[in-house]
Amino acid sequence: MTAPTRPIPLTDPDLDDLVDRMARREVTAHFLVPADQPPGVIRPPAPALAVRVRACSACGADAATFAASGTPLPFAHWLAEPDDGAPSALPTLTVLGCEWFAPRAVLAVAVALDRYDGAATAAFRSRAVALTDLGVGPDAAPTATALALLEAAERWVDAVAAGVAPAAFAEALAAPDPAPRGAVVPAASRAVSTGLDWTAHRDLLTPGFLGPHPRGPRLTRMNDAYLTARRVAAELALAGDATCPA
Ligand SMILES: [Zn+2]
To answer: How many Cβ atoms are within 10 Å of 98's Cβ, its own excluded?
Structure first.
């Protein structure tokens, strides 16, 4: 795919809306309810999945780095392996060697695998990996067009949340075109433990909505807006749950 070229303008209400939508989608994914499970819980074991670890072109972290960091996978029986492009008998989730997700961040993947047979052949990927596939490096600022493509590739979660029929889910998983290959997981990620001293590592603890690497001041401001929107949406969702009749 040719890298999108439209630069991100200084102010763009459409882009603000897009970032807000991505934040609210992450919260929606956090509150998905698997069949016969309480909110936020996946019955053991979660569906099997291979975590493909791609070498990060910004910091060099790869599958060996990921393993050496001791970073736990969201589910203990999920397997981590290098992203070598070989076909997998399992559904896959591709991440960078320097990023990790909290279990709730991949709840949508587990629910989709649990609920839809079609998801079993899906290739899920993190936002940072998807941007890499669009020609945007892990520490580069994406264009507005790349962000729009990324957001569109997350809409399968809306279908899961709506509880659509399998055929409609398959359609949502396949769309849109053009798009990053594979369904994008709508979640911020954090940097894996790097062996840095605490002060240096602390700077990497802020979740990044487009992955663990800072992407410049403009994207840092967008990340702040994303995290605020995510917090507000989560508070509203929790307040809604609290007022639900038993
Ligand atoms: Zn990296």
So the answer is: 29
Sequence-distant (≥ 6) Cβ neighbours of residue 164 within 8 angstroms: 172
Please tell me the distance between residue 45's alpha carbon and the centre of ligand 1 in angstroms: 30
Q: How far is the CA of 57 from the centre of ligand 1 (A)?
A: 7
CB-based contact 191:109 (threshold 8 Å): no
Neighbours of ion ligand 1 (CB under 5 A): 56, 58-59, 61, 98
The rounded Å distance from CA 61 to ligand 1 centre is 6
ipTM metric: 0.99
Q: pLDDT tens-digit profile of 195-232?
A: 666 766 676 778 999 999 999 999 999 999 999 999 99
Q: What pLDDT is attached to residue 245?
A: 41
Domain residue ranges in the chain: 13-238
